[in-house]
Each structure stands twice: as C-alpha cells, then as structure tokens.
C-alpha cells in the first residue's frame, strides 16, 4: 500500500513541479546504417537503438531529417540540432550528372518527431496516466 501511495504522489508531483526537459530525437545516418532509410517508422527496438536525449548538443530544440545526396551517396540523416534548418524540398543536379535528385530537409520541435510518422509526446500528464494505469493493473493481478 505504501508503494502505491509513493507512485501516486510521485506522479502528481511530476505534474506540478516543472522539469528542465530536453528534446529527444532519432539520430542515424543511412551511410553507416542501412536501417536508417527515408520512410522509416520506428518500432520499439528502433527507439531503444536510435533515440537520443540530445544532451550533447548545445541548446538542442529541434529534430532534423535530411534526405538527398551526401558524400556522393543518396541517403538519409536524422539528428538533434540547436537551430531550425527549415522544412523544404528541392531538386538538385550535381555537376556532370544528367539526373536530378530530390533533396529534402525537415525540422520539427517535438520529441522523436523525425522518424517518419507522428509520435506521442511524453509529458507530465502522460506520465501520470501511465503511472495510474500501471498501479491499477498491478493491484488487479
């Protein structure tokens, strides 16, 4: 019973006390990891492997996804950033190349928003609901 009280109290405090939350972004480079492709939708295993707390980037506020030609190869990069790179696509033709390549950059400011699909933000209210659900399910086992 004491554990239940601590869980509920902790969940309530997390709603009241402001946290200094940093952003979480997916970080990968298709030139190093073939799983990091443009239309990738993260599952739980991917989240554990590629989700980054961005604490190594000063003033990280954005998640970025870039697709296009990098170092001579068509690929995708995802990373954390302290600046807004904007969101746009363009067709690029490299010197001496007859083909044009679509190159895009997308910047977003929500947690894990650079994976290719919408992603739920994990905030204090979600933590409270998850804690209560877990507490109730443990009590019924």
UniProtKB/TrEMBL annotation:
<protein>
    <submittedName>
        <fullName>Uncharacterized protein</fullName>
    </submittedName>
</protein>
<dbReference type="InterPro" id="IPR031424">
    <property type="entry name" value="QVR-like"/>
</dbReference>
<feature type="signal peptide">
    <location>
        <begin position="1"/>
        <end position="22"/>
    </location>
</feature>
<dbReference type="GO" id="GO:0032222">
    <property type="term" value="P:regulation of synaptic transmission, cholinergic"/>
</dbReference>
<dbReference type="Pfam" id="PF17064">
    <property type="entry name" value="QVR"/>
</dbReference>
<keyword id="KW-0325">Glycoprotein</keyword>
<keyword id="KW-0732">Signal</keyword>
<dbReference type="GO" id="GO:0030431">
    <property type="term" value="P:sleep"/>
</dbReference>
<dbReference type="InterPro" id="IPR050975">
    <property type="entry name" value="Sleep_regulator"/>
</dbReference>
């Amino acid at each position: 019973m004491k554990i239940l009280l601590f869980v509920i109290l902790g969940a309530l405090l997390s709603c009241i006390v402001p946290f200094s939350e940093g952003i979480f972004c997916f970080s990968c480079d298709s030139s190093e990891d073939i799983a990091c492709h443009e239309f990738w939708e993260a599952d739980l295993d991917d989240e554990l492997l590629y989700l980054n707390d961005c604490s190594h980037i000063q003033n990280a506020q954005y998640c970025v996804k870039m697709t296009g030609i990098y170092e001579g190869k068509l690929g995708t990069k995802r990373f954390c950033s302290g600046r807004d790179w904007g969101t746009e696509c363009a067709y690029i033709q490299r010197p001496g190349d007859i083909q044009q390549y679509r190159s895009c950059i997308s910047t977003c400011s929500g947690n894990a928003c650079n994976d290719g699909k919408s992603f739920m933000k994990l905030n204090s209210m979600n933590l409270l609901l998850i804690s209560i659900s877990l507490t109730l399910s443990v009590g019924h086992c």
